[in-house]
Each structure stands twice: as C-alpha cells, then as structure tokens.
Write a structure and sequence with these properties.
Layout (H helix, E strand, L loop, with lengths): L5 H15 L12 E9 L6 E7 L4 E6 L11 E7 L4 E7 L10 E7 L4 E2 L4 E11 L2 E10 L2 E8 L17 E2 L1 H5 L6 E6 L5 E10 L14 E3 L6
Parallel strand pairs: 6-14, 7-11
Antiparallel strand pairs: 1-2, 1-13, 2-3, 3-4, 4-5, 5-6, 8-9, 9-10, 10-12, 12-13
Amino acid sequence: HGLAGGSGRTEVLSLLAAPLLLAAPLAAQEFEGMIQMTMSGKEMPEPMTMKMYVTESRQAMVMTMPASAGPMAGQEARMVINPASGKMTMLIPTPPGSGMPGKGMKMTMNFAAIAEQAEGSVTKLGTSQTILGMKCDDYEVKAEDETMKMCVTTAMGRYRFPDMTGRGRPEMPAWTKAFGNKPAFPLKIWTDDGSMSMEVTAIERGPVSKEILDENPEGFMAMPGMGG
C-alpha cells in the first residue's frame, strides 16, 4: 500500500505499536546507552528486533522493518520521546519506489497528560534468572484480562514507558503501579502459551548520538492525525 493512504499508514503504525506496549524506560535511573530487545509471538510473522536509546532528557526507539513489511523491509523507523515537551515523534522513512517526496513522514503525539490504569496484581514466584550478567527475579503479572510472566531487575531503573493500548491516550501499564517507586525493569517477558515473548539481548552503556535523538530531522514531512 502507498503510505499516503489510510491502510498503508495503519499497517506501519501497527508494526511500530507492538513493541511499544512492552518496553523502553522513559527515565531509567542512572542509565544512559542502548538496550536491544527481541520480540516474537504467535501472531507475528517473524521476530522483531528493536534498539532503545536512553538518556536523562530524551529517548528513542529504532526498529529495522522486517521482511513482512513489504516495500518497507530493511528500512529503519524511529520514535523519539521528549518528556520535557510531552511529545512522541514517529519518523517513518519513505518506501523505495513509492514516488513520495522527502525522506519520510513525521507524526507527533502529545502524551503530557498520562493516565494511570488500575493497579495490577504482581506475585513473586521465588525463582530467578541471569540475563546479560544481571540477576532478575521472576514474577507473575495479572493486569485486567492479561496474565504474563516477567523477569525483573533492579539494576536498570524504573520501567516508565506509556502503554499505547488504543484507548485514545497513553497510559502507564497497570503492573508498574504494583512496584511503586522501586526500580523495576523487565529483562524478559513471556506467556505460558507462547503467544508472546520479549527479551533484552544486548545492553551498551555510554553516550547516545544526538542524531538518533533528533525529533526534527530535515526532509521529513509532517503528517496530520496524530495530535493526541
């Protein structure tokens, strides 16, 4: 589909939305660098790998579009989160051969007023794992009609990314409230039936390039419909 059309835009946004439900610290305490994650599921044609770039003032997610994305395959889509302005900026590159002008589309969403869902149920299972040299404790999490398990570490700060559930506004995932103000970041999330799994596969500490965090790169055309 041409991305200028509604269906094409919806397909790309759907690909981007899935990983956002799961990860990216809006303010990972004392952490600056890159977190790489791989996500898979029964309804996903292939695993998706994404990189989260985290600084104190701004964060970004970069995802290489999978083969199932058609003409977008191999292209890098990026989302930049700016807590100071309360904005999420999505940057989607122009598909090769589409005839669209410029480098791609830019869409912005306002999340300044983040609603918080009802508290979920979190049960510590008494087991632990070691992922990338970090110990994490296993929990069972029940939130609304979903049950999943996650291995949570205290070494990466708090998980603070709003959940884009289609309610019309960003919301903090219900399970985050159960941990309160304690550092809690999931290194692994999975379901017993195998419908979904996510695991952090690489962590690199260090300065993040300003180019990756740029929410207004040249050549991207602003698109309507994402005003929040």
